[in-house]
Every structure is written in structure tokens, then in C-alpha cells.
Amino acid sequence: MNKTNQQIVNQAARASIITNILMTVFKLFAGVLGNSAAMISDAVHSLADLFSTAIAVVGIKLAARKADKDHPYGHERFECVASVFLAILIFVVGAGIGWVGLQNIISGDNYTMPGAIALVAAVVSLVGKEGLFRYLRRAARKIDSSAMMADAWHSRADALSSIGSFVGIGGAMLGFPIMDSIAAIVICGFILKTAISIFLDAIGKMTDRACDDETVEKMRQVILSQDAVEGIDSLMTRIFGNKIYVDVDILVNPLMTLKAAHDVSHAVHDAIETQFPKVKHCMVHVSPGEEILPTSVQ
After folding, report:
1. What are the average pLDDT values for consecutive 10-residue runs of the chain, which has 298 residues?
2. CA geometry: angle 5, 6, 7, nearest 5 deg
3. In sequence order, which residues have a C-beta less than 8 Å from that of residue 160 and are 6 or more positions away?
4. The dihedral of CA 225, 229, 231, 234: what is its sign?
5. How far is residue 111's CA from residue 58's CA, in Å, rounded to a whole number?
6. Phi/psi at 147 (5° precision)
7. CA distance 267 to 263
8. Using CA of residue 142, residue 143, residue 145, residue 151, what is the dihedral sign?
């Protein structure tokens, strides 16, 4: 990882940690003082965000390590591993929040009127976590980090939780106390959806999924535009962490010299890695195409 990317990771981590510490303390205080199960659940979610940030940072740093003897293709998949852990953590927290809300409804322990401070905390949390989400998402896009993007969406889930808290607390204050516990269950749904999305994305990147059709077609056009390339016998791609590996079998004139064929393969290799920044490695194999005799021989 270069210095600039490392600085982005460090700055994002500091922003996330400081924001979540402040949010956790404030929401827990407001939830206890304001007698709001939804706000206490929201505080627990913010606490989980602290751990998710730590996991994301560790995953990013491990993924940035250079290739070695045991990992000749690099360590990019450590980011995917971090994202899987994040997804599991988010899922467990969400399920716990939903379970507490459901128990309160079943037991009838939901008739305590929340205080106004809980409503204020919901608004502050919504604004703060939405701002953090946008900041982390922008940073994740700059360094193309799936783990940081997962952490960003965790913050968005927390912002959505705050909307649920606001509605639940507001409904309870208007004379429908059960709304506070219902809000906790709604929050659970948002969190579980986020966890599943992050998990599926990480698993997809760990199972050598191919690039999308549009990207593959663009690669095909770039390859065919190179001089002396008669066609493509096969073109395979696979996503490795946040990088792409390409294997292509091109067709050239069988009468071409070995050096000339080698130069063509290099041209294809360089074109792919230059025009597609995410491509970490491009393997080009040369096969004989149609026999085209020089003009002087025909």
C-alpha cells in the first residue's frame, strides 16, 4: 500500500472510531435516561461499529502486503476475509437487537414512555452516521477497498437504525409505547439486509467470479484492436480480492516469427494492464490462426 492510500485508511479509521465512540456514549446515555429500548439498541449497534472498523483496518493492511513465497499472487483476499467477519458481526448485532425488541413485545415490557432526550439522540445519530457513511464511502472508492466499503455500509445501516429509532420513539411519545419495540425490530431488518449484502459480495470475490459482461467485452475490443491479432480463441477473467486476473489466447499468423509473435503478446499484455487499472496480471498465450502468406509470395 502506498503512502497516500495508507494515509486515507488512517484518516478514515480515526474518523470512524472517534464518531462511534461519541455516538455510543451519547446514545447509551440517552437510551437509559430516556427509557428507550430502541435507542439502547442503536447504541449497541454503534459499539459494534467500533469493532467493525478495527477488523476493516486489519484486513486492509494485511491485503496490502507484498506477494511472498507462500502467497505468490498477493494477499488481496484478506480484505474479503475481513468483510466476511464484518458481515457476521453485523448480522449477530442485528439479530440481537431484533430479539430484544420481540421479547419486549411478547412480554408486554414496552409501555415505558421514552423521554425527549432519546428523540434528540436519534436525530443527532442520523446526521452523524450518514455523514460518516458518505466520508467512508468516498475513501473506500479512492483506494478501492471492499473492507472499508463494508464498514461504510455498516455506518449507513446505523443511520437507518436511527430513522427507525426516531419513528419508534416519536410514536411512543405520541401515545403508542409499543412503537419503540417495533422500531427495534425494524432496525433489525435493516441491519440483517446490510450484513447479507456484504457477505455475498465478499464470498463472490473469494470464489474467482468472472468480471461482468461489459468489462469482458471492452477487454475483447482492446485485444482485437492490437496489430497482428487475428482473433481470440479464449478470454477468461477472475476477480481476486479487489484485483482482476486475465487469461487470453490470441490467434496470430502461423508464419510469424517467434519474436514477432512475442512482441504481439506483449502489446496485448501492456494494453490490457494499462487500460484496465484493476488488472493485476494478464497472461497471453499465442496460437496459430489462418495462414496468411506475404504479398511477394502470393
Report:
1. 72 85 86 77 74 76 75 73 81 80 71 74 86 89 80 78 76 76 76 82 78 93 93 90 87 91 94 91 89 47
2. 90
3. 187, 190
4. negative
5. 43
6. -65, -45
7. 6
8. negative
